[in-house]
Amino acid sequence: MPELLDSTRAALILLVSLDPDLWEIIGVSFRVSLTAMALAIPPALLIALALARLAFPGRWLLISLANTLMAVPTVVVGLMLFMLLSRSGPLGEWRLLFTQPAMVIGQWLLAIPLLIAMLHAALQGVDQRAWETARLHGAGRVAALWRLLGEARFGVMAAIVASFGRIIAEVGSAVMVGGNIEHFTRNITTAIALETLKGEYAQGIALGLVLLVLALILNLMLGILRGRGQQTLSS
Predict the structure, then answer these.
(1) Is the CB of residue 189 less than 8 Å from the CB of residue 170?
(2) Nearest to 24 by CA among 154, 203, 218, 196
(3) Which of 22-31, 52-61, 127-136, 196-205 has the lowest mean pLDDT?
């Protein structure tokens, strides 16, 4: 117990004192995850719109595939990407293994199915009349799509928040393709694992506190969005 209290006290000191090594690790995590989200949202949104509003062969297969891929363990995604990017792999010439771009690709692959599934559910729940009304009032296809997204805005934001929370807290893919290289690819989750194995708990606890605060913020945001969405539906 005294050791835990001492480690927690040291962790708080690291956070408050803006320890450069600690905040560098936090910066890597947010940089990689935010980049992955920025690259994942546009294609996921287009695919979700197509699945929600268009009828085409294989539509339900794609929906089932997205729902299935949400449950794939992160380490499996990391293993597949490692085999593709290794020197003997088909993409080895890209020399991306153990780099931040490789971590971005891994998190992109993790975010895409979750985004598609949640965005599809949000857009599917929008009344078809929103699209038809916009078209009747002379809105073009792009303007009508914006109207549709506006109607589903709470579900869309919930999908983005939930996906970001999933990828920033993953460890399997980050270890496999990032390599946990100090000052380069070491992020929050890989640093926690390393420091715990070394028996140096202060930095691990500090980084764990960052993830806990982030999880709290994301859950509060989801709760607010869910409440506003329910108010909109009832009004």
Answers:
(1) yes
(2) 203
(3) 127-136
Domain membership of residue 90 as a residue range:
2-234
Output the pLDDT for position 145.
Answer: 75
CB burial of 190-213 (b: ≥16 within 10 Å; e: otherwise) equals bbbebbeeeeebbbbbbbbebbee
Helix (H, G, I), strand (E, B) or coil at 183: coil
CATH code of the domain containing 230: 1.10.3720.10
| pLDDT tens per residue across span 68-86 | 999 899 999 999 999 999 9
Long-range own/partner contacts, residues 93-97 (CB < 8 A, 24 or more apart):
96/177, 97/177, 97/179
Q: What amino acid occupies position 42?
A: P
Name the domain count of the chain.
1
**CA torsion angle 123 124 127 131 (round to 10):** 60
| Residue whose pair of structure tokens reads 């999880």 in the numeric block | 215
Half-sphere exposure (Cβ direction) of 35: Cα atoms closer than 13 Å: 13
End-to-end C-alpha distance for the chain, whole angstroms: 52
Token pair of 42 as six digits: 């546009």
Burial-class residue 88 by CB neighbours within 10 Å (0-12, 13-18, 19+): exposed
Report whether 176 contacts 75 (CB < 8 A). yes
**Residue 3's pLDDT is what?**
76
Is the CB of residue 177 less than 8 Å from the CB of residue 106?
Answer: yes
Predicted pLDDT at 155: 87
